[in-house]
Amino acid sequence: MFQRELNQAALWGERLLTSLRAASDSPRTAEVAKELTCALEAAWRMESSLGQFLAVEEQKLRAMGMLETASLARQAFDALKPCLLAAGKVLLRPEAEMKGWIEDFVPRVERAVEVVRKAQRGMPLVKSHRIDAPVGEARPESAQATVSIAQTDCPNLDVEGVADLARRALEPLGGIEAFIRPGQTVLLKPNQTLWLLADEGGTTDPRLVGALTRLSFEAGAARVVVGESSGGGSASDYVMEVTGVKLMARREGAEVVDFHSCEQREVDLPQGKLIKRIALPVPLLEADAVINLPKMKTHNWDWISGALKNWVGIVNPIVREQHHDADTFDEYTDLLFQVRPTLNVMDAIVRGVGNGPGANTGEFYGAILASIDPVAMDSVAAQLLGFDPSSIGFVQVAADRGLGVGDPHRIAVVGVPLSQAFRPAKPPEMGVDMYEANVIVGTGITRAGTLGHFKSMADVFYAMGTWGLVQRLHGTPTILIGDAEDPLFEDHLEAGPYIVIDDAAPEQYKHHPKPFFIPGHPVLHNLESLLPEGLRIPRLGRLALGVMGKTRTLDSRLEFNSPRPVVPLVRAALGVSRRLTVPFQVAGTIALLSTLTLGLSLGLRYLLLTRPKG
């Protein structure tokens, strides 16, 4: 993650200098303007690479020994940014003035490039975040934490099959009875961050929610409550309806609550480092036992999303806006000290790989993990996905503060051996340069906040083919995020939609009449609705989101509430439609629904015509 951005900055810096020198040496005005345009593109790309590096949270930089490197990157950014501000109208000037400007600009750029090179040279030897084998583990008798793994080769389990797999995972920990007493109220907290199905790798499997509900009642629980506060601007109740969690939970006798709309209570956090008082959902606070049900998946911010990251979903979105930025690791560790899960059971039946958390690809893995310690669980899950636990910010911060054990050499893995369960997954693609758009990243934002949430939406658009669609309809979009300068601002305005994101952006862009401004700091949940509007596809965006939601709702209903003979063919068609680009997905879904409607109407007509009279 760290080397990539600095290497990109150095590469674009070299191209910038090359183009500037070519422009300075060119004898013709047209050639000067052409080379200068190339130089200014290299300049904003260099700026954006540095901005992405500087968006890394200080806690991660400190843990990796990168604070001095970040200081140098900041110096390079600060040296470059004023030059870009002054570049705005240079292409409209006479040749002599352009060359005069270049003569003044080159020494500053040389300074910025030299600082980037110094940062590269001074970068500590950072071991790769990827691993080729498990880092290590402890013997059970000497371990300070235990993680149990149960695994199956069968991809088509029903709720009872998943319950059996969960029993196998819980058995080394003493079984479900070790955590639930008769008469207790149990709260289950699944990952329902977006309306993505479990087999897409995005959310906790409804079968696991049903299984833990069933096991809780078997242990004597008087009530089981399933609660969540979804992200991405989606209503939690709607998300759980789409994914099938609500249907499955109620079928097994559990209640379902939306942490956004339910009663909240202000509580003190005595062990809070940054949060001393916060509003939390009453059903969570009043539960006798809390079972954390995270999804094993990759994530573009902290490499993985697991037990610790799942706790972001215990606060409603309004409160989350205040605690999802530079200090997110510490803030949610504060919450875990206040409301610590009694038990953690991770869904890795189908794990999410690739561009998580919004554009994961589902990969059958067939496992359930269980542990009392959420830090140890994430340390093991990171290894199973092919990541070094020391590169996971949540693991390191929570372990340093004593919430749990993050060192793999102090964690025992029981059940399926770690070496047998180890299967590296496709990591998320970092950076913002694979989209069919110009993305300019500045300072004043973080990966945990605005940048990470933009990237999550951008990855979804990338998977759906939305960027290419926008380019064909309206031209190449430009997105300026945070405090950055765009030296080709006028050209980018002419090329396609222009979006400015976050209050940290410079005033001249936020208040310009042409760009579409998305306010907030950080900008989180309103990106889902406002980004399509800024890209000039609001109606198509709403239609696509509506169709996708209905498609997935139908899919989950067929899976959990339909006669089995009709399921495979229709679900296969729905699965194919999910992988299509936006226009084909909408058209394909409408065609499928129309066919089903026609088939049902013809069948009903046939029954009415053939029914015996009298």
Structure notes:
This protein is 48% helix and 15% strand. Helix 1 packs antiparallel against helix 5 (95-122), helix 7 runs parallel beside helix 9 and helix 21 (538-561) runs antiparallel to helix 22. Strands 1, 2, 3, 4, 7, 8, 9, 10, 11 and 12 form a ten-stranded mixed β-sheet that branches. It has a four-stranded parallel β-sheet with strand order 13-14-15-16. A two-stranded antiparallel ribbon has the order 5-6. The chain has 23 helices and 16 strands. The model has no long low-confidence stretch (mean pLDDT 90). It has helices at residues 2-25, 29-54, 58-63, 67-85, 95-122, 159-170, 206-218, 236-243, 245-251, 282-286, 317-320, 328-338, 374-384, 393-400, 418-421, 450-464, 466-474, 489-495, 507-510, 527-534, 538-561, 567-578, 582-610, and strands at residues 145-151, 185-190, 223-228, 255-258, 264-268, 277-281, 289-293, 295-299, 303-305, 343-355, 359-371, 411-415, 438-441, 478-481, 498-501, 516-518. The protein folds into four domains: 1-129, Four Helix Bundle (Hemerythrin (Met), subunit A) (Up-down Bundle), CATH 1.20.120; 145-421, Rossmann fold (3-Layer(aba) Sandwich); 427-536, no CATH class; 540-610, no CATH class.
Please sum up the structure shown.
The chain is of the alpha/beta class and about 625 residues long. It is built from 23 helices and 16 strands.
